[in-house]
Known about the structure:
By secondary structure, the protein is an alpha/beta fold. It folds into two domains: 3-188, Glycogen Phosphorylase B (Rossmann fold, 3-Layer(aba) Sandwich); 214-386, Glycogen Phosphorylase B (Rossmann fold, 3-Layer(aba) Sandwich). Helices cover 39% and strands 14% of the residues. The protein is built from 16 helices and twelve strands.
Amino acid sequence: xxxxxxxxxxxxxxxxxxxxxxxxxxxxxxxxxxxxxxxxxxxxxxxxxxxxxxxxxxxxxxxxxxxxxxxxxxxxxxxxxxxxxxxxxxxxxxxxxxxxxxxxxxxxxxxxxxxxxxxxxxxxxxxxxxxxxxxxxxxxxxxxxxxxxxxxxxxxxxxxxxxxxxxxxxxxxxxxxxxxxxxxxxxxxxxxxxxxxxxxxxxxxxxxxxxxxxxxxxxxxxxxxxxxxxxxxxxxxxxxxxxxxxxxxxxxxxxxxxxxxxxxxxxxxxxxxxxxxxxxxxxxxxxxxxxxxxxxxxxxxxxxxxxxxxxxxxxxxxxxxxxxxxxxxxxxxxxxxxxxxxxxxxxxxxxxxxxxxxxxxxxxxxxxxxxxxxxxxxxxxxxxxxxxxxxxxxxxxxxxxx
Length: 402
């Protein structure tokens, strides 16, 4: 299923279920009189349905919880798309996977997952905007259900027993850390997280080289608002590759099979620059390896260039020299500070940025001016750079709109 359909199902079906389940939750809360003290007494279930990179951001909190409760079973409820990322973290005893590739699979696997997770003690819902994740957490009949809320009038927040206020302008990684803090689990240091993931993947520690011999490039991202997060091939060639002082390093493009064509277009555009292009090898490895093998290849590189994606979070975790490019997401809320990390962050804030984690349809409709203007030095003071694009609602005719 397309992600737009998944969001629509979550929004409309989830809202209807929450409306009625609120009455059930209140009734059971009064009649059962359960002890909701924040002391873990059984299995812990983490819910994260979208975003492999978000799981990497939450790793210090998750590893802290894993270490604080070694005798408790830590499980993850997620989708087939996120499962490979969860496996690289090595903190979960079990990964319960929802098959959301079709509507029938969504319903059937959802019921199986619910039966598997029923009766757990503590649920940590890391999905900020999902309705169905809150519904799933309630139906497990967990004693404690930790989640986020951002709308005081919303129904979703009432299904959680413990709620953390979500401020879109606050660092997301600190909000994840707060979940661990509520359970009295010390948040792990980034150095410990890096060593842990390297151990899971079988990657030895390599000393940083003064010269850059190999650069990994992540030009793709997940299908969540991908149309507004990417750089064009021309931007890659003219402003990233051509601006690099050393053009003899080997370049490897990493990503999924969906990123292969984008990488080929970038390679062709770079080669078209001629003598001012790139002297080193350009290798497209997108879609040729499993995620764990891609991460091993990433760890062997000296530097990483990429947009906001899961590969960026892994590259920062491995301590590579990082050059990242942001537009519809604010790097201040996405990138946890890492001591000693050599990184360059390119971000030009417009009034509509950040947007993709607040709305399902970007206000620009795909015309990602925030990314297009990243390298536009001449127009940097253009007042249009501060405009919020106007969204046209195509559900109504012009007459009805007037």
